[in-house]
Design brief:
Helix content: over 70%
Largest sheet: none
Mean pLDDT: 81
Low-confidence stretches: none
Radius of gyration: 18 Å
Number of helices: 5
Shape: extended
Length: 121
């Protein structure tokens, strides 16, 4: 698969995620959903639906951990480097009292949602 094929695949998977985000933004601006609904829906998705989706995806896969160890080590290293980099850089960008929030937002991001969408297709 070349670059354009990979780009097409990525857009076909992440496109619906972005469409849902923009539909939600539109509905909120039109007053069809409010902040209370957004909080409840986020709680439902992150605390119930996402863990169930991850579990169901895992039981269907025939993973052999020793084959995946290089990827696991890479991900752990990348997470550590990202955390340390943003911790150091956030001292320049944000006030000290907001440093933890800024690092958590930069480090965690929404990769769970986009990553699950990429893996599920």
């Amino acid at each position: 698969m070349g670059y354009l094929g990979a780009l097409e695949y990525t857009l076909s998977v992440t496109g619906p995620v972005f469409i849902i985000v923009f539909v939600g933004l539109y509905l909120k601006r039109k007053g069809h959903i409010d902040t209370g609904f957004v909080g409840q829906a986020s709680s439902l998705v992150f605390n119930i639906c996402l863990p169930i989706l991850i579990f169901l995806s895992m039981i269907d896969n025939d993973l052999h951990l020793p084959d995946q160890l290089p990827l696991v080590w890479f991900c752990m290293g990348a997470a550590l480097v990202t955390f340390v980099a943003f911790w150091l850089l956030s001292g320049v960008w944000v006030a000290h009292k907001d440093r933890g929030v800024a690092v958590q937002g930069a480090f965690r991001s929404n990769l769970g949602i986009v990553g699950i969408a990429l893996c599920a297709k």
